DNA sequence: GCCAACGTTGGC
DNA sequence: GCCAACGTTGGC
């Protein structure tokens, strides 16, 4: 099983909405690198749900329940989306500041490529972030 | 609100 | 195919 981190602006789509909806298509990715990551996701993979701009913190954990298929919000038909299901909240949201302050996370894509909206997370980083968030 | 990073577009 | 101009993202 692989681990990921996906970003959403809470003004557009928040963790609360994800929880309320249960399963939700993760649409709107219009970046080639992020799309490659979407296509690499397998059913059962887990992802951190990160709030960009507002909050700037990991607030929950979601699971991939449907692998990549054409994004219904994309009229060109070139981009894909996946379906995500809310698994559980992160009890103590892990802020970007806390991630930057942790030397073991210096290489994480969230810090190194701030504009990427879908990125892989190593098993070691996943475990550490879960511990930091009280989501063991 | 500003700015850095970076992807995209269009002229040549 | 290069590169300047421009638009968008996202942190501060």
Automatic annotation (TrEMBL):
CDD domains in UniProt: EVE
Domain EVE: 2-132
Pfam families: EVE
Identification of the protein by name: EVE domain-containing protein
Organism of origin: Siccirubricoccus soli
Source taxonomy: Bacteria, Pseudomonadati, Pseudomonadota, Alphaproteobacteria, Acetobacterales
């Amino acid at each position: 099983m692989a681990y990921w981190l996906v970003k959403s602006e809470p003004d557009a789509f928040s963790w609360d909405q994800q929880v309320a909806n249960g399963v939700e298509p993760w649409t709107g990715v219009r970046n080639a690198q992020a799309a490659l990551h979407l296509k690499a996701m397998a059913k059962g993979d887990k992802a951190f749900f990160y709030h960009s701009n507002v909050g700037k913190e990991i607030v929950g954990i979601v699971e991939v329940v449907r692998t990549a298929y054409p994004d219904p919000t994309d009229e060109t038909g070139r981009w894909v989306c996946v379906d995500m299901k809310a698994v559980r909240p992160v009890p103590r949201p892990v802020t970007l500041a806390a991630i930057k302050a942790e030397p073991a996370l210096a290489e994480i894509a969230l810090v190194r490529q701030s504009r990427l909206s879908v990125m892989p997370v190593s098993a070691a980083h996943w475990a550490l972030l879960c511990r930091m968030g009280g989501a063991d």
